[in-house]
Fold each of these.
Amino acid sequence: MDNVDKAPLKVREATPPGGGGLLSKPQGWWTRLTDFLGEVRAEMKRVTWPANKEVYATTIVVILTSMFFGAYLWGLDLVLSGALRWLYKLLGATA
């Protein structure tokens, strides 16, 4: 992290009261857009992308965890619905 280029942040002036917006300064929108896209491109170069092996491993973990919790909630639903059915039957309600 020490070798990361830390560019100074650009400070933009606040929008004047009652003004601003795309229609008030139509001549500067292209410059602002190209500045923004240039900043996005520079920031994307700093992103550390995960390796394929890491993506594969975390995908497997997510799938297995989802399956585990799905089975757990299905079992819990069966137990609770059976308990409610028994309670209704005990109290004489029709379900």
Amino acid sequence: MDTFSTRQVAKMLGIQPKTLSRYIAAGKVPAPKTVQLGGLRVHAWSKRDVEHLRELLPRIKNGRKTRYQTQKKQTKKTNHQRKKER
């Protein structure tokens, strides 16, 4: 069974390794199996994990964009309410 490091998986998916690590820490992506190599603990991704992640990535919302879109929606609602009041 082939296993891949977080860095390799990030490269396959076209994202930065730090981004993938942040998604794991935030709980946006399920953490794969952890393997002990010497004194380090490393995530070991299987092909199945990578394919599952490939399906999840489009559904993950970037915090900045989400926050901006929410503010934008609220502004539109407020402006719309002001027009109705006139």
Amino acid sequence: MRRSFERALAIAAFGIGGCAEMPPDYIAVKPGDAAQRELQGRRFDGIGEKELLDASVAVLQDLGFTVDITSVELGFVQGAKEREAKAPDQTLVLLIIAALAASQGSGAGISQEQMRQDQTISVLLTVRPVREGDARSHIVLVTFHRHLRQPFVRTAGPLRDPVLYQSFFELLSKALFLEAHKL
């Protein structure tokens, strides 16, 4: 019984995997990847992992994120926040479509719901020791992703703005300083 279940599971995995196509350069290292990784990570010395995670969660909450998952054992935090996103070119396209529909006499206008452009900004944060057994030096890696939901388009991708990452790490450093000095 167990073998037949394992076979069925393997066949299903191959079948599902065969349906999805990955671009040929999906796992290729791109020229800017090292610089982006450098931007997303910082080293913190003289602080424990739990304190670093607590301060990170506090900073994310101050920035408006709702923290969904926190695992001290894994050194992992996940959160998200909802925002409205307006893109002038998208609004223009919708207005042109509405004008064309009206000129054809279809009377089909574009509703406010169709004009909405919502986005979710998600954050993934990990804390790991610099070296095994070193409980006072850690590396914090954080990535921000944007999931944009527009009337006709859904896109997602990482946010690569250096100011975003620099601002986050500045706030985290300030929070750690205030906590260390009990201010």
Amino acid sequence: MMTETRDRILFALAAVCAVLLSYNFYKIFLVLPDEANQGAIYRIVYVHVPSIFTGFTGFFVALAASGAYLATGKLKYDAFAAAVTEVSLAFATIVLATGMIWGRIIWGVWWAWDARLTTMLVCWLIYAGYLMLRRAIDEPTQRARLSAVVSIFGCVDILIVWKSIEWWRTQHPRASPQRSRRRRHGPRNGSAHLLELAGLHVSSGHSSNGPNPPRRTLARNRFPPPHGPLLLK
């Protein structure tokens, strides 16, 4: 009975996810015009940014589950943390991949050792190490305890990722999302971010007025290629 109920819930989540993502991709690719400075590549933001929030949300949920295991010793919390971390790492991979594609078009390079990019890569490596650690240790209690510690360190790095553009000089865009949407895409287009975020959150749960007219301008003038060492402000 419980298995049947769970299957129905998973089916419902998959259906909601399909509807949300289908509508949102229709709006992104067929309704929204090209951005004034970046052209068509700006559309990748509607996958990149929601993936960040979905992945980071999952990592903090895993942190809470790991804390629950440390407090109670119940392995079900550890199993839940591991499942959530697997899904969140997939979204972190999407973040890195879409960021590299955007950087290749805007900066002219696939990768730059920028503060935001580097700290995000470190975050990805921490959680990839989390999953490798779990496969390397057979004893359940020791595996759960060490995994919880890695999860804590991972969430500390998430805070560094979040604050990196304030602590260091960085090429990563710093504009306020609200200001950026109003200036470049018009006020209504922010709903695409919210719909995509909702769709990706549902997807992760299932797995664990008019805009500006387009203009052809060279985006590299607005986002120069990264150069020089990263310095503290």
